[in-house]
Amino acid sequence: MTLSEEATARNDSSDKNADVRILLIGEAGVGKTSLIMSLLEDEFCANVPPRIDNIMIPADITPEGVVTSIHDYCASEQTEEELKTEIEFANVVCLVYAVDDHQSIEKATKIWLPLIKQIKGDKSGSCPIIFVGNKSDEAGPSKHIEKVLPIMNEYDEIETCVECSAKTMKNISEIFYYAQKAVIYPTHQLYISEDRELTKKCKKALIRIFKLCDFDNDGLLNDIELNQFQLFVFGVPLTASAVSVSFLCH
């Protein structure tokens, strides 16, 4: 059974029942709809419509067990107001470009990224962006990553970059997995990328956890305390090799 048989098409743009709302945007012809169709059908579809209706994927068939809605965008079929609404309600944005088309990368930085930041405003930092380089099968040996890295360094919202191909199915499921993960396990609450350090709240939480685990209050976690922490968090005891490593660290 393909994902398309499990998923349902929705015309409701709010999708209030979705835990994760994924929006695909980018220039025309970069393959946004093809990526969604390849995910749903588990194979490349040569003929795709300009845009497909919103897709709702049930929690029981997603890796993280969350209800996920996927939204496609097409400039020829949607208005600017509809685009703004889609961006406003998106939990995560997949910004798609073609690795063999430098112009699509350039427009991602000059048009799409500033637009997301403008619409999201103060919330832009809490809406992760997955940079998606499609059509890797057509690019041949490419140095496009060298062009993308400076962009990722400039925009902290970009969670990761995925090079993929709707035609060869390369990294198709990974795109949507990373998108889900970016929403469910956000890093901006834990780490300040521009300062390269943990947030104050994260530091406070880690210190609190350490103190709770330090039963003898000696300022160190011995093997027994580490093992108790391991059991509480992961439900399994430390292995002998892990205990040996902790001994060496002491």
TrEMBL record:
The keyword Nucleotide-binding applies. The keyword Magnesium does not apply. Residues 17-185 form the Miro domain. One of its GO terms (biological process) is small GTPase-mediated signal transduction. SMART domains: RAB (SM00175), RAS (SM00173), RHO (SM00174). Keywords: GTP-binding, Nucleotide-binding. GO terms for molecular function: GTP binding; GTPase activity. This is Miro domain-containing protein.
